[in-house]
Design goal:
Chains A, B: InterPro entries: HTH_LacI, LacI/GalR-like_sensor, Lambda_DNA-bd_dom_sf, Peripla_BP_I. Chains A, B: Keywords: DNA-binding, Repressor, Transcription, Transcription regulation. Chains A, B: Pfam families: LacI, Peripla_BP_3. The structure is a homodimer. Chain A is α/β, with parallel strands linked by helices. Chain A folds into three domains: 73 residues, Orthogonal Bundle (434 Repressor (Amino-terminal Domain)), CATH 1.10.260.40; 132 residues, Rossmann fold (3-Layer(aba) Sandwich), CATH 3.40.50; 137 residues, Rossmann fold. Helix content of chain A is 38%, strand content 17%. Chain A has twelve helices and twelve strands. A six-stranded parallel beta sheet of chain A has the order 2-1-3-4-5-11, with helices on both faces. In chain A, strands 7-6-8-9 form a four-stranded parallel beta sheet, sandwiched between helices. A two-stranded antiparallel sheet of chain A has the order 10-12. In chain A, helix 2 packs across helix 3, helix 5 runs parallel beside helix 12 and helix 9 crosses helix 10. The first copy, chain A, is elongated and about 90 Å long. At the A-B interface, helix 4, helix 5, strand 2, helix 10 and helix 11 of A face helix 4, helix 5, strand 2, helix 10 and helix 11 of B. Chain B binds a DNA duplex through helix 1, helix 2 and helix 4.
Chain lengths: 369, 369
DNA sequence: TTGTATGCGTTATCAC
DNA sequence: GTGATAACGCATACAA
């Protein structure tokens, strides 16, 4: 209470109460007891509400007592009282099958931790029925909010509404009512184009695919940027269905050779591929045709599928979808609304850039021709 | 709390009190009230302890009341009381970077859900310091137990001990004190061998790698099973470091051709590859050498790296590491000890089989030779 | 400025 | 069989 009091041992006989027997964490009452104050004071100090309420000396005493006792508020008791669990539910259509979803998840858990939250995850495995169920289970568990993450960018028809703050990651809802964070696909296409343009390429080919949402946007940004420099793709191949290494291989051959198997006269000096697998096929096709990459032909991939892109020879320059960052920002978006329950729900749509990952497969075009 | 104890709203209009206004979930007291019994009775019935205590009629009445009110026990309140959060903490060295970790996670969340638990995850991103921190944070959050999962099979030196039940997935501790679940690597090697043997192959090559733990075991099982049939690998290549498509390509060429580039006389009719990337390289090498797969040469991969194996031409037969099952069983192991706190901790080591995934790249050897 | 009393919703211990 | 009553640990309106 006052400096003349007994800051440390109250009685003469060292009862050693400060060393709590392990397994019995200190409670707020213990702290109050030890600091010679009430639980209220403890609560105020530890929640930063001590400003005009608690004397500085008292505050210090409480802080010290808490430290000595290694006090941590019991999260469950706190939750019961505040009706906030500091838990986020993340529902995804497939963590399991995508190498990217993990990045998103990693970003989300990281950021959540920074903001004092845990992320509980549930994988619907592409079974929409389970998503609804998962949402309800999370709601029943009183999570503070929900994140829906999809593996591929897509528009989701309906998100189960269980009365919880919800944000979308790598997807968006038709009615644009929910905050969501997605890749800026058009910009990514533009980045790819600029990369090739800046290296001096003018004869540019593109192998695209029937990607539902992302594809057209990406291609639009690509061709538009090209057009702004007065360049038109010299060749375009559209892959349907399987964007495999094999498909990339054949598409590239078709793009580079004539029917008789000879190299075309007028052929691209650079090819932009819809994804890294296709780019891998392109690499192989080039090798088969005696074209050196990147000396004779530059190849730019998409996705930064690490297991693949970094291990090819030559290693693949590509664009990395911002999965990790989507995870982080989805959490931010969500916690912002969780922590401001009264604020109006702004249907934010954040579009994140896909950074270029420079490796070996892109260089300036060959001087001649 | 309930004003006047009227089951319906006080006013004459819109009685419908049983349809709780959303946002105000029914409590156990509400149920007791509505069924005209005490909370004790409700608790007994809902926790299955009604056997000799509650009259069947009463039991039914309570059940009905609960159903009508759509009562669900408040998990936070329950946790506070039982000091069990029904939460599992999963720490992994890299969800993010591995396509497999997702499977493990999926299996874990699935099984946890079946047993009434949620899985909160944290990705240390290969930073061991963070693992300790994560463990402490989970402990502070009062999770019921911890799972450590690693991306590649390995022995872990020390697992942070935060006084929580812990099990290991896809790794094991040096002292064998912790329950853990890992792939049966030797058996997997045997399975691969038997697969090739059963198809009639006797000239068998293997491209292995310097995989720390799994490699030797797997190879041991493979060669042992071969030996039991009196077969010795006709060629063995060991890859160091990068197990890339490219490495597989060159290793396969080396295995199939002589120094002058001609096909060897005595060459394998089947090759077992350390992983699917290497197998992809083998596929390409075979194609380059004019060998048809699987007609002239069978290729068996390992890992079932889906993005790759299923999309190659021909698609790759391979062995799938039991990641999903490891996740499931890790949860089972963990919850078994969580639910039997008094039982002695048996340092179980479960070894799970890697199923063969039949696709196109393996067939009988060519008749001649 | 500090202390007191109460509620969050459950489970568990007893007397009745 | 049943029904009060006490924790669990924290936060806070309100009284001192």
């Amino acid at each position: 209470m006052n400096p003349g009091g007994h800051p440390t041992s109250g009685g003469g006989r060292t009862p050693r109460r400060d060393e709590r027997s392990p397994g019995k964490p200190a409670t707020a009452l213990d702290v109050a007891h030890r600091a010679g104050v009430s639980r209220t004071a403890v609560s105020f100090v530890l929640n930063g509400k001590s400003d005009g309420n608690i004397a500085e000396a008292t505050r210090q005493r409480i802080l010290e007592a808490a430290r000595e006792l290694d006090y941590r508020p019991h999260p469950v008791a706190r939750s019961l009282r505040t009706s906030r669990t500091q838990l986020i539910g993340l529902i995804t259509d497939s963590i399991a099958s995508s190498p990217f979803a993990g990045q998103l998840l990693g970003g989300a858990t990281d950021r959540a931790r920074e903001r004092g939250h845990l992320v509980a995850v549930f994988d619907s495995g592409e079974r929409p029925a389970l998503e609804e169920q998962a949402a309800e289970e999370f709601a029943g568990r009183r999570v503070d909010g929900l994140i829906y993450a999809s593996m591929g960018l897509r528009e989701v028809a309906s998100v189960p509404d269980v009365g919880l703050p919800t944000v979308l990651a790598n997807c968006f809802d038709a009615r644009g009512e929910l905050p969501s964070v997605i890749p800026a696909e058009e910009e990514a296409g533009a980045t790819a184009a600029r990369c090739l343009l800046d290296m001096g390429h003018r004869q540019i080919g593109v192998i695209t695919g029937d990607l539902v949402v992302a594809g057209p946007r990406r291609l639009a940004g690509f061709t538009k940027t090209l057009a702004e420099s007065g360049v038109k793709p010299v060749a375009v191949q559209e892959l349907r269905g399987g964007w495999t290494i094999d498909a990339g291989f054949h598409a590239t051959r078709a793009m580079l050779t004539r029917a008789d198997g000879q190299l075309r006269q007028r052929r691209p000096t650079a090819i932009f591929c819809v994804n890294d697998r296709v780019a891998a096929g392109a690499l192989l096709a080039a090798a088969g045709l005696g074209l050196a990459v990147p000396a004779d032909l530059s190849i730019l991939g998409f996705d930064d599928q690490e297991e693949l892109a970094a291990n090819l020879v030559p290693s693949l320059s590509t664009l990395a979808l911002p999965h990790r960052e989507m995870g982080r920002q989805a959490v931010d978006l969500l916690l912002d609304v969780v922590e401001q329950p009264d604020a109006p729900v702004t249907p934010t749509l954040r579009e994140l850039p896909s950074p270029l990952v420079w490796r070996e497969s892109v260089a300036a075009p060959p001087p001649t021709r």
